[in-house]
Each structure stands twice: as C-alpha cells, then as structure tokens.
Amino acid sequence: MSAPTTWAQRRRDRIDDTAGRSLSADALRRLRRSPTAIVGAVIIGLFVLVSVFAPLLAPHDPAQAFPQLLDQLRPGAIPGPQPGFPLGSDQNGRDEFSRMILASRQTLLVGVLATVFGLAAGVVIGVLAGAFGGWLDTVLMRVTDVLLSIPSLLLAISVAALAARPSQTTVIIAVALVNVPIFARLLRGSMLAQRDSDHVLAATALGVKRRAVVLRHMLPNAIGPVIVQATLTLATAILDAAALSFLGLGDADPARAEWGLMLASAQPYLDVRPGLAVYPAIAIIVVALGFTLLGESLREAIDPKGRR
C-alpha cells in the first residue's frame, strides 16, 4: 500500500506540471479557462462565419424590392416579420434579414482593413521612434501627441469630411488614421523597454547589425501588447465606421447594406417601425462587445502579473 501523499510532494507535482511551459502556452491555457474569453471568441467566430458566408446565408437579394412587401407598405405602416421574411421589410420593400446578413460583411471588411492599415503605419512609426531615438523619436512622437490630443471620432469625421465624395474607402482611411498614434505610442514604449534588455545588449556586443537587432531581437519581443491592442481596436474601428456611415460620411449608396447606414435610414421611421433601427444597433453593440471581451481577456492572459 502506497504512503500518503505529503504537502511537499503535492507541491512538487504542481511545479512539475507547469515546468517548461512557455508564456504563450500559459496564456493560451488561461484563455481557455476564461468564460469572458470564450464568450468573446464565440461572438467573433459567429460574426466571421456569417460575414464570410453571407451570400449563401441570405435568403434574398438585399437590393431587391419584393412586390408582396411593397403591397403592404403604407404611409404609417411597414411590414413586420412574416413567412419568408423573418425580420420583415425595410422602408423600401426589401428583405431586412438579408440586408442584415450582407451588412455584416461590409462591417467586417471596414473594421479589419482600418485596423490593419493603422497597425502597419503605427508599427513603422513605433519601430523608428523606439529603436533609433534622437531627433527622429522627438519628431514622430510630437506628431503622435498632436493626433492623440484630438478626440478619435472628431478626427475621423474631419478626415472623412475632407474627401470630395464620401465612400467606403474614405471611412477606412479615416478610421485607420485614428488608430495609427495608438499603435505607434504603444510599440514605441515596448521598444524602449527592450532596448536595454540583456539579449539586446548581448547581440550588440557581438557585433550584430543594428537592423538585425531591431527586427530579430527587439520587435518580436515588443509586438505582443500591440497585437492585443489590435483586438481591442477592432471594436472601436467598427463603432467609428458605423458612426461615420450614420453621419453620412460613408458610402452614400442606399442600396448597399451597411449597419451604420441602415441605422441612419431608419431614423424617420422610428415611430412606425422601431425594429429597423434596433436590429443594426444590436448587431453593432454585440460585435463590438465580442472583440472587447476577447481583447481584455487576451491582455490579462499575457500579463505576467496574472500568472498563477
């Protein structure tokens, strides 16, 4: 019969279980155990699947007006849910359900492209400022400070308003520009923390070229917080893009299904059919919430202070 397990033995077993586990593996383990991360991942996963397969999931053409719906349109009445049209009709006799599904693709496209472009520009600025310092760091950071001093939505509106003709491209550029100083400032701080680390000093002492030190030693160890911030920024990018479309600074084509534009088009009919505004508003809130939940959980998972 085996001897009872002592406290010291149990402690050694726990240490053995965690020995050799990398930071990324430990962060992934905590993410899998986080209900918040799971909820956020499920929301994002469903959103991405609906966006990718939107043409297959939409039962009708979102730009087509159906006679059976047009016949029910009245000055004070818009058809509600009915067989074949789960969310009823919009103010033009089109299927609201199909438009909601197709609009998810536009929202994902704008949010992802704006975040990617902002991330790319921010990484370049952050690397140059954090790795080389001097007058280059001073100039880049002062420009970044100016951009950060302007409220993000106001900056996006100003940039989008400069375009001669509002379009989806101007929304992407405007939202991307808002995100650039956020990524640049965050990466610059991480690069400064890496500049005096032991592995960077060792590589420099061995005669490794400056470019290799920056790209192979500093940047890979500094990019983690920036990737986490990109997840959170996706939520704000979706909100900012919807706000620009709502204000009429996005794609002005009323036939294009986009949640912000659908929300703006529904304003005159709130007393007749409030669902036309409720559906896109809930979709925007839920998707932004999903990215926020996952981003916050990812931030906590990679934080060394949160290790157990």
Strand content: under 5%
As a percent range, the share of helical residues equals over 70%
**Unreliable residue stretches:** 15-19
Averaged pLDDT, please? 81
Architecture, according to CATH?
A: Orthogonal Bundle
Helix count from the secondary structure assignment:
14
Rg computed from alpha carbons, rounded to a whole number of angstroms: 25 Å
Under the CATH scheme, which class?
Answer: Mainly Alpha
Main sheet attributes: strand count, strand direction, barrel closure: none
Query: Which of globular, elongated, flat, extended, rod-shaped describes the shape?
Result: elongated
User: How many distinct folded domains?
Assistant: 1
CATH topology: MetI-like fold
Structural class: mainly alpha
CATH superfamily: MetI-like
Q: State the distance separating the first and last CA atoms.
A: 34 Å
**Quaternary state, please?**
single chain
DSSP strand count: 0
Query: What's the helix-strand series?
Result: HHHHHHHHHHHHHH
